[in-house]
């Protein structure tokens, strides 16, 4: 092999590597992996230098992993073919903007991870997804979120249970309205210097909270700890107050939390949801019992109908013996002779 050929081969390898690094190689040549996870179809397009959501994937995908790519923008058509997605992983990309309607097709979405991107706010349509339970938006500089939430329609439709907003530069917890199903919130690594204790009244079902490495004032720290202890929330990841302030300097938070109208409304929502789920359970059980009884009745009715058909068929098979005309004449002659003979015997006796 001459020197020119070696140089050409080395140059091709270098160019191919550069094209792969910058995403110029077609995604079709670098195929995503298909696998099954808990009976769900998962497509793993992890670390492929993708610059957009690939449009050629199987449309029945339920778990889509697009993490560690170079996606900067989500378009309205990005997820239009993939309406069955339940879990969407978009962390460690470069997402800066999201077109309105990008997530509107994902009505089955239960979890989305948008952490470690370049977002400056959370698209408000995410909070209206009817099945969304877990939301991860940590490690984004959400500087425009407080102002954008002024346009949020409350109560939100998403039944949020887990919310991660850690390291987002927030001065206060976001006002998402009543969150009756939220049991955990991670707001660590945020300043929270303007924390409103009223926000906790909207989370009446809270079980654990993470506020580590936040910059709470002494009064905020005391109020938060007092409230969380009363509602029996784990305070393992809540800052420990270094001093105790009297009521004149730091009033008790209960008028703003457990005794507030928001907290009562939140509790009523929880009770209503429990009653609704109980009613659905009872209705489902009653429907199941009625279905079983109906099936049993149909089986019995069908069996009786089959038995009646069998009886009719056997009755048709048992036909009466038909006497031929010749046998009928002979029988009449024999009967006539028998009668004449009896008459002769009676005549002799009379004589």
Automatic annotation (TrEMBL):
InterPro entries in the record: Leu-rich_rpt (IPR001611), Leu-rich_rpt_typical-subtyp (IPR003591), LRR_dom_sf (IPR032675)
Glycoprotein among keywords: yes
Ranges of Polar residues composition bias in the record: 336-351
Keyword Glycosyltransferase set for record: no
Domain of life of the organism encoding this protein: Eukaryota
Compartment annotation: Membrane
Membrane topology summary: Single-pass membrane protein
Sequence segments annotated as region (Disordered): 332-351
GO BP terms: signal transduction
SUPFAM superfamilies xref list: L domain-like (SSF52058)
One GO cellular component term: plasma membrane
Transmembrane segments: 278-300
UniProt-recorded name of the protein: Toll-like receptor 4
Gene: LOC119636977
